[in-house]
Design a protein that fits this description.
Blueprint: E1 7-11, H1 15-21, H2 26-47, E2 51-58, H3 66-82, H4 84-89, E3 93-97, H5 105-118, E4 125-132, H6 134-148, H7 158-163, E5 175-178, E6 197-200, H8 210-221
Parallel strand pairs: 1-2, 1-5, 2-4, 3-4, 5-6
Helix pairs in contact: 1-2, 2-3, 3-5
The protein binds farnesyl diphosphate.
Farnesyl diphosphate is lined by residues 12-17, 30, 33-34, 37, 54, 56, 61, 76, 79, 128, 180.
Length: 232
């Protein structure tokens, strides 16, 4: 397929509303949202999308109730343990973005296991943004630059920041997708979004399937990207 986005990043919104509509607790929405995430990763990988980022937990999500935070952390660590086979079978390389240091030990352990086990895969790469914030990541990148060269006096360059982001081997996202009718960036991939295209859908994330992914990709393929220049 021509003009496929190389990297799609998803803001998976609407789990809570989905649960409410079904008369279920918010946790049921997150569980269903995770099933949708797996469905979309598989569908994206099948159509040849090389890089996927999923916004699973933001630096702001700690403001939710203690119960919801604990549920999400538990859901993430159980998913990584249970779905190791899914990633291995589909030759998917898993990486993590975000502040690793502040995560619960169980999540740290599972992230380390799955990223190490899949590090050699050359298929689709999935970046799990967990305890991720765009501003936080930029600060981390700048601090990495100074940690590597404490004596540094020269001005920090754009290239240095790009090379020191959490997931420096990922290209910038071509397409940012947000579900559930919201049109905000919510501190997601702030540096990398400079020239991203955006796609919004009213559908709640747990209801997403391949047809929604296809609609997002097809919208992207019809766009004329100029990167600040003139039409080609
Ligand atoms: C936003 O919906 C969703 C989240 C904060 C959590 C998303 C996490 C998952 C789907 C689990 C994915 C995990 C992996 C490892 C891929 P919301 O709760 O803000 O929904 P609402 O706005 O309707 O309340």
């Amino acid at each position: 397929m021509k003009n496929l986005p190389l990297h799609i990043a998803f803001i998976m919104d609407g789990n809570g509303r989905w649960a409410k509509n079904q008369g279920k607790p918010r946790s049921a929405g997150h569980r269903e949202g995770l099933t949708a995430a797996k469905r979309i990763v598989k569908a994206a990988s099948d159509i040849g999308i090389k890089y996927i980022t999923l916004y699973a937990f933001s630096t702001e999500n700690w403001k939710r109730t203690e119960d919801e935070v604990a549920f999400l952390m538990n859901l993430i660590s159980r998913h990584l343990r249970k779905e190791m086979d899914f990633y291995v079978k589909n030759r998917i390389r898993v990486v993590h973005s975000g502040d690793f240091s502040a995560l619960p030990d169980s999540v740290k352990y599972e992230i380390t296991s799955v990223t190490e086990a899949t590090a050699g895969f050359k298929g689709t790469a999935v970046n799990l943004a967990i305890n991720y914030g765009g501003r936080d990541e930029i600060i981390r990148a700048v601090n990495r630059i100074y940690d590597k060269s404490p004596e540094k006096r020269s001005p920090v360059t754009e290239q240095e920041i790009s090379e020191n982001l959490d997931c420096a081997d990922f290209p910038d996202p071509d397409l940012i997708v947000r579900s559930a009718g919201e049109r905000r960036l919510s501190n997601f991939l702030l540096w990398q979004c400079a020239y991203a295209e955006f796609y919004y859908s009213d559908k709640l994330w747990p209801d997403w399937d391949k047809s929604d992914l296809d609609a997002a990709v097809s919208s992207y393929r019809n766009r004329n990207r100029k990167f600040g220049g003139l039409n080609e």
